[in-house]
Every structure is written in structure tokens, then in C-alpha cells.
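Title: Prediction job returns without error message
Component: structure pipeline
Severity: low
Priority: P3
Assignee: unassigned

Description:
Job completed but the reporter wants confirmation the result is attached to the right record. Sequence as submitted:
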Amino acid sequence: MKTSTPSGGSPRGGSLLAEEYGDCLKGRSQESAGEEKLALVGSLVLDRFLIERRIGSGGFGVVYEAWDGRLERPVAVKAIEQRGEAGKRVMREAQAAARLNHPGIVTLYEMGEEDGNALLVSELVEGDTLARLAAEDVLSDREIGDIGADLCEALDHAHSRGVIHRDIKPQNVQVVDGQPRAKLMDFGIALVADAAGLTQTGDVVGTLAYMSPEQAEGLEAGPEADVYSLALTLYECWSGENPHRRGNAVATVRSIGRRARPLRRLRPDLPRELAEEIDACLDPRPQHRPLLEELGGAIEDSLDELADHAMSTPRRVGLRLGVLGIAAAVGAILVLGHGLVLP
């Protein structure tokens, strides 16, 4: 693992999400102005956390590495300007995190407000995003399987506490440095049972290329939506191809409702039972998808059959080419609804 990733999901040197899509989605001038207001390096926030350096940014704020002077430990601080949807997203993330306590989920330590900014303080995890590691093609099939098993356990914990993530994707998974252990992060658009809703039927929220069909249609997303997005993430990691990503948003949405090519057509060397379970989880009909524990069981049962060394030849190049159509897709956002993040 080559870089360190904070709990806010931004690899040192800049967020992968921001690098690829931030300018397209927000515009350079708007993003730069917002980040100037969030320039906190060298300041003490919440009378406790010394901001040491910026480590990334995304559509909703800036992430810093900081030092907790009281407990003497490094932390990640996500600073978000409290305006419009961004302010609501902060509360949603805090509400979700308050219900969760699991080693496979990044821990939120504290939430506060200062100078008009919402501050989320969380654990600083040394490692890298799954998106970056998959793009570099450095993970073995066994390591991807281990990561998938971790994510199944983390999501099972979240679902048991009434939290639906709704934005599972490689960028929202951190892989701990030096070991194939994964942590799920960014519950900013999570659906929290019994909490005040920020979306209603007809709203489209999530990251387009990883959305379940029901999310793309603006329908209510339950645990089945997370199963779909997790299976799609693993499909992409094992094959190097996202089966729904297209050159523009409209074409991607049309593809979401169709069945993906069977995984074994791209990777015939993978265990048959595992590949078939992934395919079943990608059924466009949520009621026909396997349960999360069934997916986790299929992964666990196949671990010993998965190669534990990096592939000698690169996987398909879909992960590396996925951003080429982003600029063309921006114009279609209004058609698809609010809350949408392009792949």
C-alpha cells in the first residue's frame, strides 16, 4: 500500500474522487472559493484538534490530518460549509455513524461547529482506497475476497441498526495499510431508520455507475440496494470492468436496468459458485437478489480457491478508462435528479 488514507476517504496527495470528478461536478471557481473558506491548516478547532495539513477534498468539503491534543492521537477532520444540501448531509452522516460500532466501519469520534463550518472528527486510517488499489491492479483475487467478506460484515452491522449506506463504491472503501482489511466510510447519503428524511420517492441519490436499478428510478432503496452495489464493486475489482459505466449519464442509466454479463465470461478462472452469487446479486429485481449473508457466505466458502498473488497480466482496463465520459455526462445531471454523483 503506497499512500495513507484518512477516514474522510481522501488519499494523501488528494482525493481520488475529487481528482477525477470534482471539477466537472462543481466547477473550478466554485470549488476553489469554498476551499478558501475552509483553509484551516495551523488552526486549533473545537479547542482540541490542531489541523496539521490538508489531505484531500471532495464535493462536500475538505479533509485534514489533525492532532488530538487531549488524547494524543492523529485524527481526520472533515470540514464542510454548512449551506444547503451540504449541511443536511453532515447531520445525516453523524446520525448514521452514531448508530454504528464495527471494526469494518470508520469510527466517527466527534461532531462540532465552528465559524460556520461543520466538523466531523474521525479515525485516521493508514491505507488506500479500494478504487486506487484496483486501478493499480495490485490486489490478488484472494485479497479482493477478504475485502468483500469484511464489507459484508460491516454492512450487515449497519443494516441491523437500520442504516442503509446507498453509496457503496470503491472510492468509499478504505483498505488498511499492509493487510487486506477493509473499512467502509462516507455515510453522507445513508438512509437512517426513524431519522428525518432528506430525500423522497423520485429523488436520485448515489453514484451513478454503482447504483441499483431502484435507486436510478428514484424508488426507495433497502438493504437489497447495498447488496447490488457491493456485488457490482466486487465484480469490477475482479474483472477490471464496470458493466454499466458508459460514455455519458443517460447511456449509463439505460444500462443499469439490464443484466450484466456473467462474471465468468470475463474471469472463467474464478470459482463458479462465487461468480454465480455475484451475478445473482446483480439481478435488476431487488426481491430476487440473495441476502447479504448469502453473498458473504459464498465469498467465505471460495476464499481458499482464490489466487493469493497479484495477476501476472492486468485485468481488463475498464477501471482506468471509466472517467473519459464524465465531462459529457455532466449536462445530463438535471435530467436525472438531485443528489447524483457521477461514477
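Comment from assignee: result matches the submitted record. Residues 16-123 form a domain with the Phosphorylase Kinase; domain 1 fold (CATH 3.30.200.20).
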